[in-house]
Write a structure and sequence with these properties.
With 172 residues, the chain is an alpha+beta fold. 54% of the residues lie in helices and 14% in strands. It has a three-stranded antiparallel β-sheet with strand order 1-3-2, covered by helices on one side.
């Protein structure tokens, strides 16, 4: 089965956008919370990830898992449990450092191909950013603190679609 749920995020111009980017990388990717807990430790999913979409008028953290039907509920419960923990501030300094370094490193790798660099300039133009945003991005991520990431994670509990509402909508 495939399942997804969405958490709110700010628009691309919001001052908290860099912290949300780091939070997404605490949650997802190889070594991220969701991957480690759902796939590696418990082998409940073939694929598990969180994607961050920051657009001009708003944003979203999109969570996805591909599981065997018999693992669907347990995988969803575990993903929601991990988001609950992060929203309560349970993010270690090591997770934060790894996510920060990953965020900068993957961005720099993505800019190595001319086509990707052009796409980044185009996306930034669409979002109303200056062309030099490409060069400023790493500095914006470096300025994010662990406290910033914990603060934005906490906003998920009081958001228009808090984690409890997601659980209720999922029939839990």
């Amino acid at each position: 089965t495939a399942q997804a749920f969405v958490l709110p995020a700010p628009d691309a111009a919001h001052p908290d956008a860099p912290a949300f980017t780091v939070l997404r990388n605490v949650a997802s990717g190889m070594g991220g919370r969701l991957y480690d807990e759902v796939r590696e430790k418990r082998n409940l999913a073939y694929t598990v990830a969180a994607y961050l979409e920051l657009n001009r008028l708003g944003g979203a953290v999109i969570n996805y898992a591909a599981t065997s039907p018999e693992n669907e509920q347990q995988a969803r419960d575990l993903m929601l449990e991990e988001w609950d923990k992060m929203a309560r501030g349970e993010i270690s300094a090591e997770e934060f450092e790894n996510a920060s370094r990953f965020t900068i490193g993957i961005y720099q790798i993505q800019l190595q191909a001319n086509a990707d660099l052009r796409a980044q300039y185009a996306r930034n133009a669409f979002l109303g950013r200056n062309p030099d945003f490409v060069d400023q991005y790493a500095g914006l991520i470096r300025a994010v603190t662990l406290e910033d990431v914990k603060r934005v994670a906490a906003t998920l509990q009081g958001s228009p679609a808090p984690l409890g509402a997601i659980r209720a909508a999922a029939g839990e």
